[in-house]
């Protein structure tokens, strides 16, 4: 057990956020925490990480949070760096403090062993070497270089000072450092936000292989499915545990609801039947005893309550394009997109009714492409044009940071001044802005609320071409599912960027993939793209193997056999030499002079291990050649 919370609640003033919390996470366990936006997920994470305290229970009972002794909990708080002038690489390498400390201690012990005979130093050195290997002392450099690359940083970025990076990049740097520090409990709040698909897939593999415990809040269903083994759901201030990944949780929750509903209905029928018998016979002398037994049966009955409906409240909009566009919606030829230099070049035709998902790494031009075609930035070359009667609705991913001193009501009404107040309130209500919510300043809204407000405005205009850049970044799973259904039913044309693979799978009829300057079109959706990418990778592997073995095509069987026989003889000589060298090393290790020379002892042991590995390689090759010759 790493963390255990029992019979607890969290409150701010008179407002109770979470009640009756029973939560536990064990060593090596990978747990998801799910629930609606505002349900208290981040509050629970901050409670576990020590930022918040438990509230005092009204009933006087004891609430508690228990953590294992000396546990390390890693949680990404507000991004601050001790020294803004150090490089990205040096900041990330701080995650390996224990490794560097061990290196220093090993160096000191080596000096001690060289200057004098010290059995204690030898023992400590051996223990440190074992620990060094266990925590990745021989592999850490490759690990952090891979992480830096997968998070979208180039080699030259490693030498840049932290002060040179943007806010988003600094968050990524802090995240890399947190991952590589390998705490006993890694607490992640929406880790896939703003990561491209390549980075998400790398993170999945990293977390699957992660030996310590992980607690994740995320709205990426595929990500959760691939990593977690249990799910805690927060709903209406209560927390419930389910075993399995996200899909298993969703199915179990549905089945539990159906079973309880069925039991409730059956019990209500039985109650009605028994109550009817009692009412009918309780005043008849001959049936009074039977009526009394039915009354007692009713009194002893454990009532099965009707199950609460799941909290699926979400925005809704029954909208269709104001009018249809022509068949050819957008045509681009050799369109170069970028800033000072071209990031990508593409040619394509988008037809009416297509739903195209755009995927690829960060910084390759996906958002730039959308900004270019909506006129927010100029093209660097080539041409593009829209067909007649195309009416565009464009959602920019940065809308979650939109600032305005206006109220929600005024922000919307100023866009549509011809509407009545009733019509405005009705439109905003459909997107969950009800009662006093409409008088909130836009600046006070959360990222998800700003996204809803912007979608409400876009859809009111009834465009026939929707261009959406990361519309789901600030949405919970219920909201994502709502948007999925809305876009599936939409009869217009859709062009959208998303790193949420499940979302892309559900909606995209075709996929546009940005990959290092190239843009490839896959007409049959995301699954088709995955199949083609896997096939391409396999073909490349075959080409590499063929290139390596090309020379063998022109070798006759007789020549090939002669070569193998010659190699066998050569290996036998090498094995003999190796055996002789191993025997000499073993003899030297046993000598009295070496036993007291700890430096020489260490050198000989390393050399012996290396020779034994070489010998094993020769033996395996010899055995393989003998099998081939026998065939």
Automatic annotation (TrEMBL):
Keyword Metal-binding found: no
Organism per entry: Clostridium aciditolerans
Coiled coil: 561-621
Name of the protein: ABC-F type ribosomal protection protein
Record SUPFAM superfamilies: P-loop containing nucleoside triphosphate hydrolases
PROSITE patterns, per the entry: ABC_TRANSPORTER_1, ABC_TRANSPORTER_2
Matching InterPro entries: AAA+_ATPase (IPR003593), ABC_tran_Xtn (IPR032781), ABC_transporter-like_ATP-bd (IPR003439), ABC_transporter-like_CS (IPR017871), ABCF_ATPase (IPR051309), P-loop_NTPase (IPR027417)
GO MF term (any one): nucleic acid binding
Entry keywords, A to Z: ATP-binding, Coiled coil, Nucleotide-binding, Repeat
Stretches assigned to the ABC transporter domain: 3-261, 326-541
């Amino acid at each position: 057990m790493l963390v255990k919370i029992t019979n607890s609640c969290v409150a701010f003033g008179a407002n109770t956020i979470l009640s009756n919390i029973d939560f536990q996470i064990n060593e090596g366990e990978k747990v998801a925490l799910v629930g609606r936006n505002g349900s208290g997920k981040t509050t629970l994470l901050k409670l576990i990480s020590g930022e918040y305290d438990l509230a005092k229970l009204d009933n006087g009972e004891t609430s508690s949070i228990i953590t294992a002794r000396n546990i390390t909990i890693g949680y990404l708080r507000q991004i601050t760096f001790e020294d803004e002038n150090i490089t990205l690489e040096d900041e990330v390498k701080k995650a390996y403090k224990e490794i560097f400390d061990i290196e220093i201690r090993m160096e000191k012990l080596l000096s001690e062993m060289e200057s004098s005979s010290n059995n204690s130093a030898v023992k400590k050195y051996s223990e440190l070497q074992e620990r060094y290997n266990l925590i990745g002392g021989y592999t850490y450099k490759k690990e952090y270089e891979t992480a830096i690359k997968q998070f979208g940083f180039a080699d030259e970025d490693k030498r840049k000072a932290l002060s040179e990076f943007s806010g988003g990049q600094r968050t990524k740097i802090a995240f890399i450092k947190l991952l590589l520090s390998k705490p006993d409990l890694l607490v992640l709040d929406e880790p896939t936000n703003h990561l491209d698909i390549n980075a998400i897939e790398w993170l999945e593999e990293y977390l699957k292989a992660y030996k310590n415990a992980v607690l994740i809040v995320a709205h990426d269903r595929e990500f959760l499915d691939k990593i977690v083994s249990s799910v805690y759901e927060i709903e209406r201030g209560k927390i419930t545990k389910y075993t399995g990944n996200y899909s298993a949780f969703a199915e179990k929750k549905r089945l539990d609801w159906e079973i309880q509903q069925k039991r409730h209905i059956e019990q209500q029928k039985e109650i009605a039947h028994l109550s009817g018998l009692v009412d009918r016979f309780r005043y008849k002398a001959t049936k009074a005893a039977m009526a009394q037994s039915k009354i007692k049966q009713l009194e002893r009955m454990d009532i099965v309550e009707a199950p609460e409906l799941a909290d699926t409240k979400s925005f809704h909009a029954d909208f269709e394009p104001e009018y249809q566009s022509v068949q050819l919606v957008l045509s681009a030829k050799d369109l170069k997109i970028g800033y000072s230099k071209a990031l990508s070049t593409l040619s394509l035709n988008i037809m009416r009714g297509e739903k195209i998902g755009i995927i690829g790494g960060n910084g390759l031009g996906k958002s730039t492409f959308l900004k270019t075609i909506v006129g927010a930035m100029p093209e660097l070359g080539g041409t593009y044009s829209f067909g007649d009667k195309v009416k565009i609705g464009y959602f920019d991913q940065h809308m979650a940071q939109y600032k305005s001193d206006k109220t929600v009501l005024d922000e919307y009404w100023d866009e549509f001044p011809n509407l009545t107040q009733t019509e405005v309130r009705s439109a905003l209500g459909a997107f969950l802005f009800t009662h006093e919510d409409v008088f909130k300043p836009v600046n006070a809204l959360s990222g998800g609320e700003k996204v809803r407000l912007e979608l409400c405005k876009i859809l009111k205009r009834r465009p026939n071409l929707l261009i959406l850049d990361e519309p789901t970044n600030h949405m919970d799973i219920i909201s994502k599912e709502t948007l999925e259904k809305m876009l599936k039913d939409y009869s217009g044309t859709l062009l959208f960027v998303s790193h949420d693979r499940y979302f892309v799978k559900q909606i995209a009829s075709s996929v546009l993939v940005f990959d290092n300057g190239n843009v490839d079109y896959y007409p049959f959706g995301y699954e088709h793209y995955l199949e083609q990418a896997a096939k391409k990778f396999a073909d490349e592997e075959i080409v590499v193997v063929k290139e390596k073995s090309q020379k063998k095509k022109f070798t006759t069987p007789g020549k090939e056999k002669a070569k193998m026989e010659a190699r066998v003889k050569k290996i036998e000589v090498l094995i003999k030499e190796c055996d002789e060298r191993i025997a000499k090393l073993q003899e030297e290790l046993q000598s009295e002079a070496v036993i007291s020379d700890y430096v020489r002892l260490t050198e000989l042991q390393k050399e012996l291990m290396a020779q034994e590995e070489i010998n094993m390689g020769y033996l395996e090759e010899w055995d393989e050649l003998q099998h081939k010759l026998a065939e």
